[in-house]
Design brief:
The chain is an alpha/beta fold. It has nine helices and four strands. The chain has one domain. It is 52% helix and 12% strand. Helix 2 crosses helix 5. The N and C termini lie far apart (50 Å).
Length: 189
């Protein structure tokens, strides 16, 4: 924490940290005095995939632990300044994924998709399950954009730190732009 405080004081830069769920509201409050945003990454809302791919995390923290941690973090950091990622490519159920993202967004958490890349380390010849399902993945991103915009957790901003500000390795920024344009068109008709 001292390092985060020093970086902020010396540079004036926005600071983002990533951590496992923190279930201590006092610690979250203290962190929020030193950093601007926090990433608490569930990675999979599809529990069968989460158990298989992240068995240690799945044993240590339930999805409800993440929800509680997110709620406490939003209370400290603010709406849309708590971030989650969801990895796509392990045959996850897209409907379950979107329901989880909607639930997280309703409490103020922004989620981005990360597509597992072909040739990812430690996966050998594994081919992500979205290959050949590009239309579904496009639709999934469109739904993500709508959820984020509808719940006002679409603050993809270059002033933000960490992945929140960059969004260079995923299509969340584009999904949000599409959703805002689609909603604007819908309301202007």
């Amino acid at each position: 924490m001292a390092l985060a405080r020093r970086i902020r004081e010396e540079t004036g830069l926005s600071v983002h940290v990533q951590t496992e769920p923190i279930l201590d509201p006092a610690l979250l409050k203290e962190l929020s005095s030193m950093i601007d945003s926090i990433g608490i990454f569930l990675e999979f809302f599809d529990e069968k995939v989460r158990q298989k791919i992240c068995p240690g995390k799945a044993q240590a923290f339930t999805q409800e632990d993440y929800m509680r941690s997110w709620e406490m973090a939003v209370a400290c950091f603010g709406w849309g300044k708590v971030w989650n990622i969801n990895i796509i490519g392990f045959d996850e159920d897209y409907e379950t994924t979107l329901k989880g993202i909607e639930r997280a967004a309703r409490i103020g958490v922004m989620t981005s998709f990360f597509l597992l890349r072909i040739g990812s380390p430690n996966l050998g010849e594994f081919v992500p399950t979205y290959i050949g399902r590009e239309d579904e993945v496009l639709q999934l991103h469109m739904e993500l954009g709508k959820i984020l915009v509808k719940n006002a957790v679409d603050n993809v901003s270059p002033e933000s730190s960490g992945c929140l500000g960059c969004q260079g390795c995923n299509a969340t920024k584009e999904a949000v732009k599409w959703a805002k344009a689609a909603l604007k068109t819908k309301f202007n008709d």
